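Dear U.,

For the methods section draft, I wanted the exact inputs and outputs in one place so we can describe them consistently. I've listed the two proteins in the order they'll appear in the manuscript figures. Please don't edit the token lines directly; just add comments below if something needs changing.

First protein:
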Amino acid sequence: MQAARGVTIRAAVAADAAALHALLAAAYMPFRARFVPSASRLEPAEIAARAADWLVLEAGDDVVGCVLSEREDDFWTFSYLAVRPDRQRRGYGGALVEAAAAQARAAGRRAVRIAVRRELAENVRFFRRRGFRFEGELTAGGAHDIYRLDLED
């Protein structure tokens, strides 16, 4: 799947696990002062075991972004959206969101959902700019809200 000139989005393979683990650690490091990101608890073996559910964004030969994209009931969900800090603000995160939405459409799903940590206003804005709307709290009193993007046919 071609995202932009020189950028490719592809399905991950088990051999990508170490690179994705390092990418997630780097991308989520800035948040560690506020909370412990769930992405920081993922181990390479867990990533490898679910490699088919991960999308990888490559710029040239470098893995610079990833997202876990998977089917759930009547909708599609994705999590662990990450772009290497030195490659952010180039549209790579948006390209990964579009790729996850394309997977959902191809699978016949009508919506894409993501849980967003409420305190990360910049992330909430990122998803709202892409058409996601607030659906509700992930769990009552929890730290995450669910945002939903309805997909057109």
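Second protein (the one for the lower panel):
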Amino acid sequence: MNETLHWLRTAFTCQYIALEECEPFADRIKSIGKMLNRMMANASSFCLPNPYRA
């Protein structure tokens, strides 16, 4: 997520995109990062047990 935010900010700094375009993307990226962190913290809720592990 940090790499994506970096390139988004770089695009803004280089004036490839306007702030009005940058902010919604940055907010969405942060939101997705939070969702992924919650999923990793509760992986057992999202993953089935591995039938090949003892």
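Candidate sentences for the figure legend, describing the second protein: The CA atoms of residues 40 and 46 lie 9 Å apart. The mean pLDDT is 90.

Thanks,
Y.
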